[in-house]
Amino acid sequence: MLYDLVQHHAGAHISALNLFRYITFRAGAACLTALVISLLLGQPLIAQLRRIQRGGQPIRALGPERHILEKAGTPTMGGVLILIALFASTLLWADLTNGFVWAVLLITLGFGAVGFADDYLKLSRRNTAGVSKRARLGSEFAISLIGGYWLQSLMPADLANHLAFPFMKDWLLPLGYAFPIFAMITISGFGNAVNFTDGLDGLAIVPVIIAALVFGLIAYLVGNHVFADYLQLHAVPGTGELCVFCSALVGAGLGFLWFNAPPAAVFMGDTGSLSLGGALGAVAVAVKHELVLCIVGGLFVVETFSVIIQVFWFRRTGRRVFLMAPLHHHFEKKGWQEPKIVIRFWIVSIVLGLCGLATLKLR
């Protein structure tokens, strides 16, 4: 919004407004704006959620026993705070004529709406059964499939239907008409992966922040022909604006972490986890780094596979591979304290983020 408003005043009229032409300036401003909005709105919003929800988020009876005692009464739907800060900051600082920005914003909003409906039903029914699995997955697939088509239409013709591989500068795998389906799997898959990971105070939001930092840099490089050519990346014109979106996500995430740090005053709920995972998946599709997201977001991938393995093996043999799935609950059952699990998972996420950055040069 500000970018569009100052365009006709920049240059010879008011030279200081030339700053708005720089993505790096607007990205930094977006991060700070989202952080301030989160901190200002956090306490009033949490108080309002407490009044509305009364008993807070329903706790699974089959989960770790201490959750029933320690986390009962904590309000959920804190993802609303993240989305307000993210959207307000992005709309304020991004170039709103950019199609990639709108595509990623609306995919994020769509997944947030699905998560909101799920949270609402859980609260209204006072149990952990929200939207049915069929309805939830159907909605996610529809949103991500439409989003995949949209993102595909914004890409250069020679890249639109192809899958790029890390460490390989020239080879592209043509997917043809299957590309939107691949995009659907990526976006909806990461939406649910972040949802699986969101089980302990601060556990999911920090890896999301790390992934957003990495993909903000990737978006900036891929959207700039000079840097893309130097690093032998596949340039996707226009994706540089997603650096502003990712920076706003970092700021909104940091603001939410202020209130989600142990002991959490609010949970992000499915409203937050689904929308954040969908956002990361959409950005990865837009910048042609879907496989790099599997590295940077490797923690989310492992958490998801721990659930898949547990369900598959239990149905096949009647025995469990893990004491409890997702994986962070396995370590809880082994006696690890929550802060130890969370901080060690953060360390793993930082290492994976650095590995993802290494793919930009190792080609």
Defining key terms:
globular; 67% helix; 363 residues; mainly alpha; two-stranded antiparallel sheet; 2% strand; single chain
Explain this structure.
This protein has 363 residues and is mainly alpha-helical. The protein has one domain. It contains 15 helices and two strands. The chain has helices spanning 2-6, 23-53, 65-70, 79-93, 99-125, 133-154, 179-197, 205-222, 225-231, 242-260, 269-286, 290-296, 298-317, 327-333, 338-358, and strands at 162-164, 172-174. It has a two-stranded antiparallel sheet. Strand 1 (162-164) and strand 2 form a beta hairpin. The chain is globular, with a radius of gyration of 20 Å.
Can you describe this structure in just a few lines?
By secondary structure, the chain is mainly alpha-helical. The chain has helices at 2-6, 23-53, 65-70, 79-93, 99-125, 133-154, 179-197, 205-222, 225-231, 242-260, 269-286, 290-296, 298-317, 327-333, 338-358, and strands spanning 162-164, 172-174. A hairpin with a 7-residue loop joins strand 1 and strand 2.
Shape: globular
For the largest beta-sheet, the strand count, sense and barrel status come to: 2 strands, antiparallel
User: Which structural class do the helices and strands define?
Assistant: mainly alpha
**Number of individual domains:** 1
Share of β-strand residues: under 5%
What is the residue-averaged pLDDT?
A: 91
DSSP, total strands? 2
The helix content is: 55-70%
Specify the number of helices.
Answer: 15
Low-confidence stretches: none
The topology string of helices and strands comes to HHHHHHEEHHHHHHHHH
| Separation, N- and C-terminal Cα atoms | 38 Å
Strand order of the largest sheet: 1-2
- Gyration radius over CA: 20 Å
Protein name: Phospho-N-acetylmuramoyl-pentapeptide-transferase
Enzyme class: transferase
InterPro entries: Glycosyl_transferase_4 (IPR000715), PNAcMuramoyl-5peptid_Trfase (IPR003524), PNAcMuramoyl-5peptid_Trfase_CS (IPR018480)
Family: Belongs to the glycosyltransferase 4 family. MraY subfamily.
